Fold these 2 entries.
Entry 1:
Amino acid sequence: MGLASFRSLIRPFVPKFLLELHRRRWEQRQERHQRHIIDEFHKIYYPSRVHEAYWLGVPALKCPLDCWVYAEIIFSTKPEIIVETGVCYGGTTLYLASLCDLLGQGTVIGVDLELQNVRDPVRQHPRIHFIEGNSVDPAVLEQVWQWCRGKRTMVILDSDHHAAHVLQELRSYGEMVTPGCYLICEDTNLNGNPVFSPVPYNPGPKEAMDMFLKEQEDAWVVDKGCEKFLMTFNPGGYLKKK
Ligand SMILES: C[S@@+](CC[C@H](N)C(=O)[O-])C[C@H]1O[C@@H](n2cnc3c(N)ncnc32)[C@H](O)[C@@H]1O
């Protein structure tokens, strides 16, 4: 007699709660196994492919799966202003502006310490405006406020990934986000969650996010639905304002 037929033979005599316990343990083991596979893939993908994504020819330092989530968020929440701190070449900025073009509304505000790397098609896009400076400098914050005050606003944080800076950004830019819209803290995958970057962000964005949520957990929902494609560079980093 095979194991499978033996199991079905004894099943009627096994108490229901034991079967339920067995089923739950099996599901937990499956989940751990899948998480391990996803994290291992993430560790292969991140160091070798993070610089390989382009939007209309401009490098975008993003996981393409997250970009699709961005598109879904922007379609469903229809922000009038999208703020991105940390622009670099501008591929993501241009991607966000392209989504705004498709929707026929929206302005993208790109904030960066230095804008010399920004590529020409990004500079020339009529929906994109740049602010040069430290993202947490009060003068920079005031300029961003001038764009977003009274407007439906979404924010993406992707500048300096040291926890102290990210926490300051979360506090300052979180205030700009409209209820029902998103504050996205990029790169919560760093510092071993599960990847490491050449610059050791220890502590990094995830640790800043944990501190921020302790301060303001009543104001935000961590939208785990945004992690539906299994791998994300922003685990726990998609916050929706209540
Ligand atoms: C990870 S890159 C941004 C990538 C970009 N968001 C993308 O998706 O392609 C980080 C950028 O943050 C900028 N940066 C670093 N520290 C900053 C700060 N304190 N304020 C504003 N920008 C900063 C850097 O100049 C760099 O261009």
Entry 2:
Amino acid sequence: MLLEIEDNETRGKLPIYKVGDRISGPSEEKAVETRRSAPKIAIVIPTLNEHKAVGNVLDGVKNVMDGYEYRMLVVDGHSVDGTDDIAREKGAEVIYQRGKGYGEALKTGFFHARKWLDAGVIVMIDADLSYDPKDIPELLAPILKDEADLVVGNRFAGMQKGAMPFVNRIGNKLLSLFAKVTLRLNIYDTQSGIRAFKSKLLDSMNLVARGMPFAIEMLTEALSSDARIHETPVSYRPRVGKTKLSPIKDGGRILGITLRLMFDTQPLLFFGSIGIVLGMVGLFLHAVTLPTVVYQYLFMIGAIQFFTLGLVIAMIKRLGRSRTRKSWKS
Ligand SMILES: Nc1nc2c(ncn2[C@@H]2O[C@H](COP(=O)(O)OP(=O)(O)OP(=O)(O)O)[C@@H](O)[C@H]2O)c(=O)[nH]1
Ligand SMILES: [Mg+2]
């Protein structure tokens, strides 16, 4: 991420990102000074018009994080309901996201947490009170014990009645199943928004999704980096305030990104699947047409070519990846 920011002394110790800003840091001296007094855990909270819930979320975080070295970082999407002012009053640092969307907000927050807060661990949680901050220590424990690099909260384990509409529940399950088949992601709740991870992991993740598909991209990138991913049960309650999720539009985008990620991370499976389909069409045509007709062989040749293409891309990607994997772990 190439980011630039404007330092704003009047708003407190840390810089505030404004609409249209490209984000980068203040002077290197200031960054060093900030790092010296920096906490180890950053709680990153994306907000978009969440004035009804954000205060309670931040109070909950403060209660549960007592004893940890932490900072609360609210990444606001230019809310118009005073969410940012409430967050500041509650003691959070508020920055304004670059661009638009949930994914962009988290990227802005992660970058800031890593570079200016020197956070070794980042926790992300929504600002709508659907997740309970009380679950944060459970997410942190495996990371602080160095048993995991990324921990995801599984909402299906502690879902309260009415917390997730039926359509979303089915959609989320199907998306996770699809991700299991296409991306080898063995996670029940791939769309969960409560997670903790080692910030070093960001070095090896190529995060480009702007909106809700960010959730699946982050997991796929972590898996490709050989991160140890754990899942832990969390509670999930009906949200306070208006949803920002559009089940059909966002569901479609998540599906699209899943296919793009499959192409990126599982080329053999991606091209091999196309090869299998072509091969089956070829065999079918072979069975039902006259032996003098030859176009079925074109399908067979296409199938072999797709397989070979998948194999070659997989080998090239494997070489590149083993280098990145080593670098973030060292
Ligand atoms: N900064 C920023 N935050 C966002 C944006 N979109 C959503 N959020 C926040 O991200 C979190 C998740 O959004 P939600 O609307 O709760 O989406 P969801 O959890 O998938 O769906 P529901 O909880 O069922 O409504 C909330 O805290 C939102 O305020 C955005 O574009 N920018
Ligand atoms: Mg929510």
